[in-house]
Every structure is written in C-alpha cells, then in structure tokens.
Write a structure and sequence with these properties.
Blueprint: H1 14-28, E1 59-64, E2 70-72, E3 75-76, H2 82-90, E4 127-133, H3 138-164, H4 168-177, H5 183-195, E5 200-206
Parallel strand pairs: 1-4, 4-5
Antiparallel strand pairs: 1-2, 2-3
Helix pairs in contact: 2-3, 3-5, 4-5
Length: about 210
Amino acid sequence: MARRENPEINAGSMADIAFLLLIFFLVTTTMDVDSGISKRLAEKPPKNYEPPKIKQKNIFEISINRNNQLFVDGQVMEMKGLREAALNFIDNGGGLGNAKEGEEAKPCDYCQGAKDPESSDHPNKAIIAVESDRATEYGTYIIVQNELLSAYSELRNRLSQKKYNMSYPELEEAFKASGRKDESLRKKVEFIKNSYPQIITDIDPIDVN
C-alpha cells in the first residue's frame, strides 16, 4: 500500500499578513494625548531693561489655597462668579491705556464697563495674576484658567460682532481659510486681539493658607 504524505501548509505569506495587521492596528488605534493650556511665554527682556511701574488697581489678584478655595483681591469668591468678575475688571475702562509709539494715550472707547476709577484703566493695562498653593488640585487650577479665558473670549466676540458682524472665532476661521494671506482679515484679527490682549501671569506656587 502506498504511503500517503501529509500535505504541508504554505506559510510563506504569513509574515506579510502579520505585517499588514500590524499596520492596520497602528493606524486605527486611538491613543491618549495629554492636553494642556496654550500659553505664550514672555520673551527675554533686553539688558538694562526697566519694567514699567504698574498701579495696584490694574492687577486682578487671584489666589487658590490648598483647600481649593478661591480668593479674588483678598476676598473669598465662588468659582461661578470668577468669569463675571474678571470680565468687569478687564472691560472697566476707567482711565488711559498704554500709548503706541508716537501716539498719545487714549481712553477705551469700546469698553462697556463701569469706568470705576478704583479698577483697571484699560484692557491693555489689565493684568490678571494667578497664585496657587503647592497643594492646589490641578483640576481647580484648570477651571480657573478656563474661566479667565472665557472672559476674554466673551469680550472679543462682543467687539467682533459689533465691528464686523461676526464672532471672533468666525473671523479667525475666515482668515485661516484665506491661507492667512488676506491682509484685511489679518488687520481685523489683530485689532480684536490687541483690543483685549490676554495678560494672564502665573505666580510661582507657594504655601497659600
């Protein structure tokens, strides 16, 4: 009786199949990406630079203690009131702004604030200083930053709607759609940004009681 040989399995293409599966999983797998807060770091000042004198009324002081309690200008504040308080401070318009080179200082003619002489003079002088305890929860710090950025966004949107009949994000999107080449849109975007510049500074964490 003839002896039957077992047929061999052709495994020559297995390596190719495994390689294709590997590529498929690499392309389709979703990976976690750490998110953060977009910040533009200050440029290094030139030698012999003398920082300008800043009036205390132009500084909006925020402190977060180790118990995640919020203090604004030394007073306890609920998180839900922070955005409105920051908006009122930035948009107060109680004095003259920083003058451009070769120009005279002018008051804010687009601000709708109370023009309180004890609050900020102008949006380009309004400084928000955030101080947190070393034990402050990161989530609380993020919420504070989001509330502050939301205040700036609201003011920019309001001014953009008033002058150009579109929100600031729509204005930015139109500028991006032009390949950032439309000079008219560029000037509009820069005008809104310069009208309400985001001046938020972080003080090094300390022990805040």
